[in-house]
Each structure stands twice: as structure tokens, then as C-alpha cells.
Design brief:
- Helices cover about 25% and strands about 45% of the residues.
- The protein has about 120 residues and is an alpha+beta fold.
- It has a five-stranded mixed sheet with strand order 1-2-3-4-5, with helices on both faces.
- Strand 4 (about 95-105) and strand 5 (about 105-120) form a beta hairpin.
């Protein structure tokens, strides 16, 4: 079994390799926690502040990890992200991603990065 902290480290390293810049981890607010916060600069654009939810599951799980980021969880992440943007004064476009980690025993089988997994509606 892979712990939540280990899954977050795997996800952070994966995104760093994709040229994302880590800003914060386990950002806590009264609304909940955001696992990872990255900045992603775009060529000729301002870029994004990316709020990442990390989900991991065993390879024989019934559902995909992303399915556990339900509407209620999304609302909490969005409220926490809103507070982060207010407190930090960050003016980058917010984006909400999910990183799925599938493992068997202690070995990672796959890592999937779902960009724009959900949005503010």
C-alpha cells in the first residue's frame, strides 16, 4: 500500500518533470486541504496556478481514483483555492487537476495527470 504522503511525492515529482513549479504542499484552510499547488507558465501567456488533488488506489480497485473527487470534494477544493488566491494575491488563472496513481503492492503501475479535471461552475 502506498501512503497518501508517498503518493503526493510521486505526483509532485511527476509534475516537476513536466516543468511545473511546486509552490506549496498540503495547503490547509478551514474548508479543507489542497494536496499540491503548482505554477505553470505558458509561452506568451501569463500561465496558471494549478491546484492538484492526488488520488491513489490499488490496481484491483473497483473505481478509478478520480471518481473519489466527487462534487462535495470539488467544492471544498474550490473554496480552499479561493482562499489561497485571496491570501496570496496570486493573479494567475486557476486550474484544477487530478493526479491518479495506480499501484500494486508497493509498486507504482501508472500515473495519470488529468488537466482541468473540474472547474468552478
Amino acid at each position: 500500500m502506498i501512503s497518501g504522503a508517498k503518493a503526493e511525492r510521486i505526483a509532485a515529482n511527476y509534475l516537476r518533470k513536466k516543468r511545473y513549479n511546486l509552490v506549496d504542499t498540503n495547503y490547509r484552510t478551514r474548508f479543507g486541504e489542497i494536496d499540491l499547488i503548482f505554477e505553470r507558465k505558458e509561452l506568451f501567456k501569463k500561465g496558471y496556478v494549478v491546484f492538484v488533488e492526488v488520488k491513489s488506489r490499488n490496481d484491483n480497485a473497483i473505481a478509478d481514483p478520480r471518481e473519489f473527487v466527487d462534487t462535495e470534494k470539488q467544492k471544498k477544493i474550490i473554496m480552499a483555492a479561493t482562499e489561497y488566491l485571496t491570501v496570496t494575491g496570486c493573479e494567475l488563472q486557476p486550474r484544477f487537476d487530478v493526479v491518479e496513481i495506480i499501484y500494486k503492492d508497493d509498486e507504482v503501475i501508472s500515473v495519470k495527470h488529468l488537466e482541468n479535471a473540474f472547474s468552478i461552475s
